[in-house]
Every structure is written in C-alpha cells, then in structure tokens.
Amino acid sequence: MRLLLALLLLLVPAVADGSKAVDARLSANTVHRDGIRSLSDLRGMPVLIDFWGKN
Amino acid sequence: MPASVKAQNTFGADLQVIFVECQGTSPDVAEAFAWKMKWMGNPAMWTHDRPIPTVGQGLPEVALIGIDGTVLMQGYPGDLGKNLEETIASEIAKARKIRAKEPEGELAKARLTQGLLRVRGRIEEGRLEEADQLLSELEKAHKGNAELALERKRLEDPALKAEREASKAWAAFVARVASAKPFDAANVQKAESLAKKHAGTKTAARAERFVKLSGVKLY
Questions:
Q1: Which of B7, B106, B111 lies nearest to residue A48, judging by beta carbons?
Q2: What's chain B's average pLDDT?
C-alpha cells in the first residue's frame, strides 16, 4: 500500500506537468525561424517537434 | 522525420513543424544532410536547441503541442502511429472552429499576430516571395487592417526591387529542386548562376550557402 501511494505521488507531478502550457525561446541559431521568436508565438496552432539525429 | 515532412506538407500553414537536431552535428552538415534527404523546401523550422526536453532514450522522437500550448503526446513516432496525424487534424479543426465562432477572439488575434511576425521575419530575411504570399492570405482574412497595409507598403518599396526579383527566382528554384535531388550538378550550377545574377541580395547569400552545402561531406 505504501509503495502504491509512493508511486502515485511520483506520477501526479508528471501528469500535472503534461497539462501545463510549454514555452521556450527559439534560438537565434535556428536555420529558418520565419519571424517566430518563441513557442508561445505559435499558440493557437498545433506544433510538431521532431527530435532527430543524422546517425 | 519523413512523416513530419509529410505532415508539414499536408497540413501547410495550419501546422508548424520544428526539427531539432539532437546529436551535436555541425549546422552545415545537418543542413546539407536535410537538403540531401529532400526534407527542405517546406515551412518547417530547424534548430539545434531543444525547445522542450526529450522523454525517451533514443531518436527519433516527436512531441505534439496542442493549440493551447500543452504537450498532447510525445514519444517514438512508430509508437504514436496514426493517432499522431489524427490528433493534429483534430487540433486544426478545433482551432478553425474557435476562430470561426470568435472572429475577434484570442485565437484569431493570435493568428494575425503570428502572421505579422512571419511576414516581418520573411521581409527581413529577404524571402519576399513568401512574405507576399502570406501577406495576401492575411489581407483576405483581415480586410482593411492597418498593420497589414503597412507591411504591404514595406514589401512594395521600390528599393526592394532587386530583392523581390531574386527572391522570386529562388522560390521557384527551391520548389523545383527540393524534392528532386537538390545537390545534382545541374542544380548546383543553377544556384551558382542565381548567386551571380542577384549578387548583393540576401537571396544571393542563400544561393551561395546552398552551393557551399552541396560540397559538405556527410560521412
């Protein structure tokens, strides 16, 4: 029971974080920024972030 | 990666794809690689900084942020499957519905603000052809808007004639080569001639960079 409670307590913040709006400045190093300065500038449209690597 | 390129092409201006290079590859190699893989030539944005943290142990990984700015799903693209595309479509439909219901609401205002940022960004970057296309769309949706009129005036400034012509030629070039072996010798030669023809413009610098990237060794 204690273990279950501890697990639930660990899970709650993770779920809560997922429901918060996220924001971040988009770096000046961005190859193609299209005038957009941060994620919040894109609020109101879906944003798909694709993390990739060449290898 | 190809799925995200496809999503950007399918959903166009209703979706913003941000590609985040995560292995510390140099900007030149990453960009050359993206050209070679035919991932360029669309409105996606490219960066080396992670706007949000990854959650998995490996790559690729995708995260979908909803219209309210919350992360709706994140993980290995293969695990998200069709659900990802369906959720994107659903978020777009939701946004359209809200904007139609509240034409002066927060979402509609955000869309205009974002459009203005993009138009200004494109003008500053010398991407005048793309700025013109977007501005025309905004003008249709927001007739008589003073800020848009100001950008139209800026865009049509006679001083930008050379940039305008260069940008038009470059946009046509990219549309032709992006999905058809961009770094083929003939395409690189054409980029070289565009750089020479439009020397001194921002487009010429873009064309010169394309030529430089064509010579980058990827492996």
A1: B7
A2: 95
